[in-house]
Specification:
heterodimer; A: alpha+beta; B: alpha/beta; Dihydrodipicolinate Reductase, domain 2; 6-stranded mixed beta sheet; 12 helices
């Protein structure tokens, strides 16, 4: 029996296109044409920009070996590809945790985020002034998009509450 | 316009001095402190009263109480600036009710009664055709209520974010600038008179939360209480937290926020970019209003102080004179 396994890769792309009706849909069409699957689309409309272009970050899953094909098709649509990366988690947020971080099992705290599948801890800086004193850490979390990030933060709030840790979130509600 | 002044602490003295010095057309016909009172319907000699208060510790006749002044003096507006009681609102609440019942306008700097009984008080004022103004309760000298009612009228306010407690802001500024511990910064704030002997009310976020309650009830009229606010103070912050924030070009500020569409109502220390307009230094206060038309507006200014608070109070009195007819 012959088993064909399609191996997919996750790719992120930063695209620039004309900011006019239908452009985004036209730009995204080649992705399905090559058998790709869109995971996230992040608009980055620069309010300062007046050159009528739209910047979009997309995350997609693509059968291996189709990337070159996709790039050609996108260029034919007049889409300018600014960056291609293999990074899956595009949305970052940094928080601070204060408390008995080691005694309350830091690896469990991290694991509660990592095990979600949509968010993970990518950086920790930690300061432990003395044994039995509270330590402080700066934790950077990555997620696929803002909604997933908000979900990860809700998990972290619950964990911080259970472990009597002080969680300092960033103020970023103001767009 | 005739006014009765109840309370001769730091704020009351500031108001009296400015009325005397700037002569904005306000005649004071009644004055009371916690121990004495004075009524003179032709106008009180403010300089003499302030001198009396300085020399003897009382402003007038010990046989006359604040309630006597409120119920008997001839005035258009009651200036209520007695100390705040966050739990009961008294005695200020009773004073304000008595004046509103006499159909007198009320201007107050007192957070307690406004946070606890805004709905009752504003309904009574409306019924009696008088004004209840409390600009000085939130953000000291910053004309927040004027901005909301007048400058931004017609806008829908979508969210508010504020640095509303000068004591906390001073402590956080010093922890960030000098690497002080919370305890060291608090001690310094005490020495400079920015923090009370018992700092609980400030550092646990209670004061900021009370101001948030006042703002939310004013803007959205939804009768929230202090217990509805999710509160975290600054007393457990470490110098390392400030340092780690700094490494990311951020700092930490105690932010009071209300976002009705997300059901967020909280006071908490937050990481915030150093270039953000809400990152003000020292005892300053700041408030960002997010609105539908004007988008974001940030107001920054002195959040406390005798003359600064007097600015807000006199602004309220003159607003009443301009909007309710010149009766003086």
């Amino acid at each position: 029996m012959l088993v064909t396994k399609v191996v997919c890769v996750q790719v992120s792309m930063k695209l620039e296109m004309k900011d006019s009706p239908g452009q985004l849909v036209a730009a995204l069409k080649p992705i399905s044409d090559v058998g790709g699957n869109i995971i996230a689309v992040i608009h980055q409309r620069d309010p300062e920009s007046d050159n009528h272009t739209l910047n979009v970050q997309i995350v997609l899953a693509l059968p291996e070996g189709r990337l070159d094909n996709l790039v050609t098709l996108l260029k034919e649509q007049g889409v300018n590809i600014q960056r291609i990366g293999k990074e899956r988690l595009l949305y970052k947020r940094t928080i601070i945790l204060i408390g008995h971080l080691m005694h309350t099992d830091l690896s469990d705290t991290v694991d509660q985020i990592d095990s979600t599948g949509f968010a993970e801890v990518c950086e920790i800086s930690m300061s432990m002034p003395a044994i039995n004193e509270r330590s402080t850490s700066r934790v950077t979390i990555k997620a696929t998009n803002r909604a997933d990030m908000d979900a990860a933060i809700i998990i972290l709030r619950r964990v911080a509450d259970q472990k009597s840790l002080l969680l300092i979130e960033p103020l970023e509600e103001i767009a | 316009m005739k006014a009765a002044l109840i309370g001769l602490g730091s704020v009351g003295r500031g108001v009296a001095e400015m009325i005397q010095k700037k002569n904005p057309g306000i005649i004071v016909t009644g004055i009371a402190d916690s121990k004495s009172g004075l009524i003179c319907n032709d106008g009180i000699d403010i300089a003499a009263v302030l001198e009396n208060k300085r020399a003897k510790g009382i402003c007038g006749d010990q046989g006359i109480t604040a309630t006597d002044v409120i119920k008997k003096a001839d005035y258009d507006v009651l200036i209520e600036v007695t100390p705040t009681n966050a739990l009961t609102g008294e005695p200020a609440l009773g004073y304000i009710l008595a004046a509103l019942e006499r159909k007198k306008h009320v201007v107050t700097s007192n957070k307690g009664p406004i946070a606890l009984a805004y709905h009752t008080l504003s309904a009574l004022a409306k019924k009696n055709g008088v004004a209840l103004r409390y600009e000085a309760t939130v953000g000291g000298a910053i004309p927040i209520m004027h901005a909301i009612e007048d400058g931004l009228s017609g806008n829908e306010i979508l969210a508010i974010y504020g640095v509303l407690n000068g004591t906390c802001n001073y402590i956080l500024t010093r922890m960030a600038a000098e690497g002080l511990t919370y305890e060291q910064a608090l001690m310094e704030a005490r020495e400079l008179g920015y923090a009370e002997a018992d700092p609980t009310y400030d550092v646990k976020g209670i004061d900021a939360a009370i101001k948030l309650v006042i703002l939310v009830n004013t803007i959205w009229g939804n009768e929230i209480k202090l217990s509805d606010v999710d509160m975290t103070g600054i007393d457990l912050l470490t110098p390392d937290a400030l340092r780690l924030a700094e490494e990311g070009d951020c700092t930490i500020r105690l932010i009071a926020e209300a976002i009705p569409r997300k059901k967020i109502l909280r006071v908490s220390p937050r990481m915030i970019e150093k270039g953000h307009p809400l990152v003000v230094e020292g005892t300053l206060n700041a408030l960002t209003l997010e609105t539908d038309m004007a988008k974001e507006i940030t107001l920054i200014g002195k959040g406390a102080g005798s003359i600064e608070t007097a600015s807000a109070i006199i602004g309220d009195i003159l607003y009443i004179r301009n909007h309710y007819g010149k009766r003086a």
